[in-house]
Write a structure and sequence with these properties.
There is one protein chain. The chain is mainly alpha-helical and about 230 residues long. It contains seven helices and no strands. α1 runs antiparallel to α4, α2 packs parallel to α4 and α4 packs antiparallel against α7. The longest helix has about 35 residues. It is globular and about 65 Å long.
Length: about 230
Amino acid sequence: MTRAADTKNRRERSLELWVFLFLVFPSLVFSFFAVRQGTVSFLLTAIATILRDLSLISLILFFIWRNREPVIAIGWTARRIWKETSIGIWLFIPLFFASSALENWLHKAGLSAPSTPLPALTSEKGPAEFLLAFLLVVVVAVAEETIFRGYLILRFKAVTSSPAAAVLLSAVIFSLGHGYEGTASVVTIGVMGAVLALVYLWRKSLAAPIVMHFLQDFTGIVLVPLLKQFKFIN
């Protein structure tokens, strides 16, 4: 590839990246200023999140198709899938305890917690609601890893020529979407995003990060409410 062609490709990738960030960045930043009137419906939040994430994945796949790039460029591969899944399960355990400890320490250091309750399963938890919660966690895990690890790292590496900068920028953008959870969670999620990015670059596959992300969300959104419903925990 000639230098002129390389410059043209980099310019096109940069323009594509800015278009994508223009679509997602405002909603991420506005999460810091979100105002809740009472409890947000879990049903409404879950459906809106699923539809939003599926639309963003569709946009990314369109960009990949338009640029004639293989989907493995964003980490979509079934290669060594069982091994990658096992790695994700094992890595989730230290990630879970380390992130919980970090968030608790940040709370004690004075960083804020959520000022209002986050959307959660209601007190009447039927099979349909738990099924929706499970579907939500699956879609979010696949979509957010595809967006923040696969796609953004791919494009930030092309624009900055620096894997370290790509990891940092993707982690920062990932954390911004959780402003409504308080600054302690924003910092914790930023660190988790960097860890997931490093695992992705190490394994060259999104399988392990998706499993780690899924288990993290499944624990808080599905497992803990389920255990509370059956009085295993308070």
